[in-house]
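Sample A.
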Amino acid sequence: MSDNRTKSVFKEGAISSVFIGESIAKHQTKTSIGAHNIFLGQVRADVIDNKIIKAIEYTAHEEMANTKFHEIREAAFEKYELTCMHIYHSLGVVNAGEICLFVFVSSPRRKVVFKALEFIVEAIKEKVPVFGKEIFEDNSHQWKVNS
């Protein structure tokens, strides 16, 4: 169910598997839910110009970003029959292999969660002012370009 308050979605550093597991476990008592879907964004060790990315340092215009996250959340609740939704995004340094984005949606029906999750993740990538500085193994860096 939608909550009209704008909340901060940001967590400092990587999003841990323990946090993800605990978030999922909290929903076992919600017996009107028939399906969950999860997106986990993970930092890749891409090779760019023969240099390997070791981490990404995330920054954001936090107030503006939280407002955009809230707008995406409200649009998803309006468009899809969702029971609940959680979005968490990292700030600070996240190493290659670690989780930087966790989106979790729930609904009475399975087909809804697939459509809703794609809508939410694409809207985040398109609209939210979160920026990543790619840090290479030689400690040089460049701003990430979303693809």
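Sample B.
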Amino acid sequence: MMLTAHSLGIGSFWLNQLPGLIHMPLIREILSDLDVLENHIVYGSVVMGYAAEEPKQAAPRKNVVNIIR
């Protein structure tokens, strides 16, 4: 979904924090509006939308590999 959104000029962001938030009234209300049953847990979601401005290009990566032992 995120690759397709990008190809259409739509930004996206992966969220994996919902398991700890599903009991909050506002989150539960949104999930109920989406027909997610009360006994189901959402482990991840994708937020999509159009950027308010053109994103800046990322700095070039260095050809360095760090191995931490």
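B remarks: The chain is about 20% helix and 15% strand. Helices lie at 2-7, 25-33.
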